[in-house]
Amino acid sequence: MSQAAATASPAASAADSPASEVRRVADAVRRRVLDYTLKNNGGYLSQACSSAETLATLYLRVLRLGPSTAPLVPRPFAGVPGPDNPDAFTGADYNGPRAPALDRFIFSPVHYALVLYSLLIELGRLGPNGLDAFNQDGSTVELIGAEHSPGHEVTAGSLGQALSQAGGIALARRLKGETGRVWVFMSDGEFQEGQTWEAFAALAHHRIGNLGVYIDANAQQCDGAMADTMTIEPLAERLRAVGAEVHEVDGHDSDALAAAAEGFGGGDRPLAVIARTDPCRGVELMRERAPKLHYLRFKSDAERQAYQQLLAALSVEAPA
Amino acid sequence: MIETVTRPHREHFVRWAAQRPEVLVLSADLTSSCEADGFRDTYPERFFSLGMAEQNMMGFAAGLAREGFFPYIHTFAVFVTRRPFDQVAMAIAYPNLPVRLVGFLPGLTTPGGVTHQAIDDVGLMRLIPNMTVLEAGDATEVTSVLDVAQAVDGPVYIRQLRGEVPRLFPAEAPMQLGRCRKLADGDDLCVVSSGICTEEALRATSALRAKGLGVRHLHVSTLKPFDDPAVLEAVAGVRLGVITMENHSVIGGLGAAVAELMAEHAVGRRLLRLGLKDTYAHGAGKAYLLREYGLDAAALVRAAETLAQTPLGIEDADLAAVRLGTLSAAEKTEDL
Fold it and tell me: What is the fold, at CATH topology level, of the domain defined by A20-78+86-317?
């Protein structure tokens, strides 16, 4: 039932350890995002490079989720929610059913959507052709995800708004006596928005200890390096000061990412895991574009060819 | 063929600001996306990155304006008008400070989905006392809107276009505050359009004229104040009725402004409002969304058929065949 439990066999050898499974999945996610970046002549590739291990670790080693109850082929857009539209849905059912003991996953930086879609495919929660409708008119598999997109539960594209909603969900679950936890994936840029800090203040004030946040701290944003745009550091100290339990880890080290969440859920403080990441990890080619890494748009045929060759090389290296 | 100008704001803004040292730019992590990167690179001492923190940015703009500067805030329209609404209203508009809020990606012009689509920005900004609301409809207006805004004693919201922008109006016919453009005259019905809808409307109006319908067409770029006598005269003087067309909700924007005007002046004509019918949209391409939400030339033809109470026999192919050029202004703008 629980993927975290299923992969936590003590008898596992190094080759099929949880960490190596995360590595395999993360590499596959990078390849698929690169593939679609090439197909679309652009995309949010650096986000895959930075967050692949964090998201894979969450799904494989942290989240207690049931199997997907959603179709392998994503549903088309069924209209916006409203009293006259009974057909509207969210993509949360890709994360399994709701149950008191199961966790919930709230995906905040929804321009990372392609990373999440690719991960869902690797995990079998989305079919292998689940991206055929990616960025197509009338599809839910949107470039920037919304709550109808696979794996998404809230509409979070106005950044820094999902954490507060997750706080409400966590508070509700505590009121209902549920033991399942609420996990939020965020980007570091969202810590520029005041609302994020308002949310942490409220989480601490109301002693919400069933909500954990994983932060992809890749130090990049649309305008370039965060340090040049609006610094958020010292992030760990600031989060500790507002009452969170803070772990600062190498965001490409699955064991460290998973260890930060061990035993979490019974206390009275929110958890913040700062995953320090490299926005070019696995795609060294991208470093020459620094500090503008937010959205990769090929500047020339030659550059596109270079990325195409990289994809071919990565695909050869991948285990069958 | 219609001329397309690539990123007209980017270069023009740099030239325009050269002799205006009091003009500053505040940006919220969308500098290149809002074509303010030229300004940033040319005048780094006048460019301030405030990060993704729009509420705070409005307060900084207000403080700078109180000290005599003219902050030009550049970000997406949704992040100017929704997120920091209270700060715009209280810190900027109440003291009538000359902050210029330049909002990009109006309405359905972004595939970014509901969070990036400004479908209520005109309504929100019209609601705020002291606020002037301008919307660019082509490359000529993208550039000339700056002079219009800068001359206003108070805050201004500019609904701005980026990227590939068509030139519908001659470069020597700049936007003027409170003056619509009369693009065609006729006595049967009056089309009032704004923003990108004017280009769509032009595809339909020529097809309608070819079917013998007398179509009067106004392009509006000042949405507040909405007191141009030429608009009242135009809507009052047609036989069948009025159609508004806007890349926005039918509530609060151009259609609402025309409805208020007609009601207040007892203009007893039917009014059809094309726009988002009190609904959110979703992420998809512009042409797809304009069709889905009834904002394309075909939707205008259907509305004209409703007013004329007769099918006009205009096919999609007829609309696609319409060739647009830069308008030599049917009537000179200074005549209006």
Answer: Rossmann fold (3.40.50)
